Amino acid sequence: MGLIKLRxxxxxxxxxxxxxxxxxxxxxxxxxxxxxxxxxxxARTMKVAIEYKSSHFGRWSKLSTTFYxxxxxxxxxxxxxPEWQAVTMGHEIFHARxxxxxxxxxxxxxxxxxxxxxxxxxxQAYCESVRVLVALGANDDTIRDYIADRPxxxxxxxxIKSIWKKDVYAYTLLALKDAWEExxxxxxx
Length: 189
Ligand SMILES: [Zn+2]
Prior knowledge:
Blueprint: H1 11-14, H2 24-27, H3 32-45, E1 49-52, E2 70-73, H4 82-102, H5 104-113, H6 115-135, H7 140-157, H8 165-188
Parallel strand pairs: 1-2
Helix pairs in contact: 3-4, 4-5, 4-6, 5-6, 6-7, 6-8, 7-8
Bound molecules: zinc ion.
Residues 91, 95, 122, 125 line the site of zinc ion (ZN).
């Protein structure tokens, strides 16, 4: 079986728009703690628990959850700066919305068994992280570095090596740059 190829402007990425936090572009200028409080409330509404994990989750620890009954945040989470916490939590709360929006069984099947979907679900959530960075007023270098690191993070941590590596790099960067541009437009609108 050959390696999986991705397509330009993957349709799975566009689907994520409906899970976005539309308020992000408006009132959160630099207010990381406000965002975190907002998402804690959203998690309560979704009946998703937020827990602080121990370090034994091993390889899949980055997945954070048992498909999204709970969001498990890393052991070092509380000692990190609020901006870092907001970017991480924005990503995880987005997964909780995907889990609810696609439905638990569809989400689980796509995430666990369809490599292309696992890639897309993560890229969708990283797009939201980029939007959080913009909402927090991060400077361009910070956002550029964050985006530049994502393909390698995905490649290393998410068991997606049945996809062409160059596709993972190219289309992850493309999706994240689109998310950045769009977020900038919305902030300035
Ligand atoms: Zn993720």
